[in-house]
Amino acid sequence: METIAAISGYYERGGEVDRLSVGRGRLEFLRTRDVLRRLLPAGPARVLDVGGGAGVHARWLAADGYQVRLVDPMPLHVEHAGAIAGVEAVLGDARRLDEADAAYQATLLLGPLYHLPERGDRVTALREAARVTAPGGLVVAATISRYAGLYDTLVRGRYLEPDVRRITDAEVVTGVHEPFDRDLFTLAYFHHPDEIVAEFAEAGLAPATRYAVEGGAWLFADRDGWLEGDERTVALLDAVRSVEQEPSLFGISSHLLTVAVVR
Which among 113, 118, 186 has a CA at the least distance from the CA of 149? Predict the structure, then answer.
């Protein structure tokens, strides 16, 4: 509960409601949807969207014919998600899911691992996801790259600020982002690309497959019309997809998706 209290002020501002519909967040959304549409079992499979925020992914999942239940610790998010047709939304914690064993064909954790600095909590959340997913179903988790903060502060021109540089340099070593400036982020954990595979294995989810979500394109895609929905957007998505499983490029991507089949 301490973790939830630490992040609540940031999310109560409502920024997550439309974050994935504008700027570089749009690329994160498009690529996450692209990968999931290729991996998920066909609808009307049951999908549990853990830490699903205001329902940005739950919305298209429901429209695609999935039976979607969203769990999130933020009341504001649950309120927004619950208003989406075909989406059931409830308050909850990824580490203690109030769900039956093997009740879903896919469980998504597209946010919870960001905010669990302790490895034990992350593995617990993954074990809970595996528990509620039927054998043969998928567990999919999103992580933020260990180096995303470094590149983000460089691109935004803030790395030269002494406090920003100190915190950014520390998180490259420890993975823990300290929430000193809400314009940057709240309390978070940034994974090394290899670290998440070990956490999946500890949770009984092996083998695991990784997908780079944005690749290096997140550093420029919100400029010069790349995300306006025309042929440039199609080309951009094609290009990023072509290298989404190249291990040498995992660290430059802002986010990774890691996927495993429940045995």
Answer: 186
Run of H or E including 138: strand 133-145
Q: Is the peptide bond before 44 cis (omega within 30 degrees of 0)?
A: yes
Report which secondary-structure segment, H or E, holds 75: helix 75-82
Is residue 6 within 8 Å of residue 187, measured between CB atoms? yes
What is the model's pLDDT at position 143? 98
Give the residue among 71, 72, 53, 69 at the shortest CA–CA distance from 61. Answer: 69
Q: Tell me, what's the pLDDT at 179?
A: 83
Amino acid identity, residue 136?
G
Residue 190's beta-bridge partner residues?
144
Cβ atoms of residues 106 and 137 within 8 Å: yes
| 91-105 pLDDT per residue, tens | 999 999 999 999 999
- Between CA 69 and CA 93, with CA 194 as vertex, the angle to 5 degrees is 25
Confidence of residue 68 (pLDDT cuts 50, 70, 90): very high
Residue 246 pLDDT grade (very low, low, confident, very high; cuts 50, 70, 90): very high
